[in-house]
Every structure is written in structure tokens, then in C-alpha cells.
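job 3f2a | input accepted
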Amino acid sequence: AVDEIKLGDNDNLSALVASNLGADLLVILTDTEGLYTHDPRSKKEGRNKSKKEGRNKKEKIEIISIVEEVTPEIERLAAAGSGGKTGVGGMKTKIQAAKITTRAGIPLVIANGNKADILARIVAGERVGTIFLPEADAVEKINDRKHWLRFASAVKGKVKVDEGAKTALTENRCSLLASGVVGVEGEFASGDPVSIADAGGVEFAKGISNYSSSEIDLIKGAQSKEIEQILGRKKYDAVVYRGNLVLV
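job 3f2a | predicted structure (248 res):
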């Protein structure tokens, strides 16, 4: 199992554990002060270059103390390389962890672990590092199964649905019926996690499939009452029950 651990997995693993435990706060300590408005390393290199060329331009680099929402701009700042020298996954994976915890209603703090009494200061409410606030609509922490589906599960295949089925799943929180399925990709067994996508292949949900990929290929577009006639048996009325489905 250790061989399968990838760079940055500690960040995401800690976020998943915190979410499943229903923690009040997750703190990730690194060797930087938090998320910067610019990558401090590249700016330093740029200033050194400017001095050599006789252009001593100063650009202000600040710590972002509060992040209310992980926007594409925040992800861009993280991807630009604002990680520490010794951090395993860099800032990008820490932002991924923040997306997991804030979606589950848990704040996350990224701070410098080299600072004295840093944990005590954070718990005391001192503003240090960068804090990511829980999403405004994350009133209740989602259950363990759905959190695993959304963030930790590796899907085995993809089930494509029509617009009517997509609306039923996203707006009415219905189960996915065979009648709304238009296609299936990959090979998977009954009970495997699958990606649920629109007809164009864009994923909008994940779920636990009640049928294998070969069975879904046979019953796609069929009414629930026709499944037994097609397969010779009917295990379930739905391809994915709403209790085993989560929007992404």
C-alpha cells in the first residue's frame, strides 16, 4: 500500500480523515506562511534579474489570510508554484485538500510549521497563515459514503445519460433509471463506483452501479419493467439509487 502513495497524498488523506471524523478544523503545516498573492520564489528571481539589468522594480507579495471560496483564481495561484521547499505535494495539493474540507463544512488552515507555538496560536484564534472558510451552503456534513464517492473513489467506468435524466438527478434528486441511460464506457461490475455524465461526456455525478457495464449496455433506454425480460432477471429498479449517488 505504501508503494501506491503519491506526492501530495498526505494533504488529501488528512482532508478525507478530517471530513469523515467530522472534525472542527484541519491544520496543514508547511514551510511557507500560507497562500501568497504571487509565488515568492519566482518574484525573488525576477527582482534579482531586474537588479542585474538596472531595473530594481519592487512588487508587493502578500499572504492571503482568508479564502471564502476556492475559485479558479485561487487554484491558479496554487498551480503557479507557491509551495514550500520541503512540502511533499506543494500548494496545489493543499488547495485540493481545502476543497474537500470546505465542501464538508470544515475550515482548513495552511500555516508555517516552523513558527513557535503555531498550533496553539491557531486554536486560540490568532490570524496566522491562510484559512479556508467552509462553503456557505455546507450546512450539514455529507455522510461518509457520499464523501468517499465524491473525493476518494476511483471510478471504474462511465454511464452517459440524456438531459431528462440529468435534470432528474441534479434538480429532483431522483435515482438513475435505465430509461435515461444513453451509453456506457469502460468495464465494471455491479457495486463498482462509476462516473455519471451527460450525453457529451461531461461528468456531473458519481454513484455505485447496481448493474455491470455489460448489463447496462443491454438495458439502456429500457423501462424498469422491461429489465427482467431483457436480462432474464431484475436485480434492481434503478441503475444507481439516489442514496448511492453524489453530485460533483
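job 3f2a | Residues 153-247 form a domain with the Archaeosine Trna-guanine Transglycosylase; Chain: A, domain 4 fold (CATH 2.30.130.10).
job 3f2a | closed
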